[in-house]
Amino acid sequence: xxxxxxxxxxxxxxxxxxxxxxxxxxxxxxxxxxDLPVTNFHFTNDESVKKVLYGRTKIEHATALFRFExxxxxxxxxxxxxxxxxxxxxxxxxxxxxxxxQDIKDxxxxxxxxxxxxxxxxxxxxxxxxxxxFGKQIAKALHAEYRDDILLKVxxxxxxxxxxxxxxxxxxxxxxxxxxxxxITGKHILIVDDLITTGATxxxxxxxxxxxxxxxxxxxxxxxx
Length: 225
Hints:
The chain is α/β, with parallel strands linked by helices. The chain has ten helices and seven strands. It has one domain (39-157, 173-224): Rossmann fold, CATH 3.40.50. 36% of the residues lie in helices and 16% in strands. The protein has a five-stranded parallel beta sheet, sandwiched between helices. Strands 4-5 form a two-stranded antiparallel ribbon. Helix 10 (200-209) links the parallel strand 6 (188-196) and strand 7 (216-224). The radius of gyration is 18 Å and the shape is globular.
């Protein structure tokens, strides 16, 4: 009864289409779940994500949960996650992808899950890293360690939301630093991010992590453009 009263004044809505949710449905309505453009890359051995980074950095395995298109429900989900304080979307998507990856051989030997970091100024402004809970839930599903203190971002960058693909790549000046190579030496690392477009950010992260010895790097993102 108490929950019904709360729902009356603060109705729960789908994070994608903003329609009211049924009592037993969390975060995303059943219609949107059915219509979301899942890639199934990790089930079909599709290498679309790896091809984005081909010839730039070595990647063991790579996947994305959704395909991203402008003015789509996937864009709405990521927008709400990043700019509307709906951090739990990240946990929901992490549970979704983690449940799928945990039964796939390629991801069973993941040792560490590391999120693409935010600069401390942006983290202070936003209050959270939008991929933190996504990464934590995937780490939990894979029985891996989650570490957000290994890779740090040391330069700020302006939002690239309105930039075209080539401009994003040409203007990417993001720089990261490795705080301590010892915890990742000899490990298989899964880097997680919200969206891969040109791959410039993930390439920068992988380049820095490769300063450690004898590591393997894989990638998992919420979506691929």
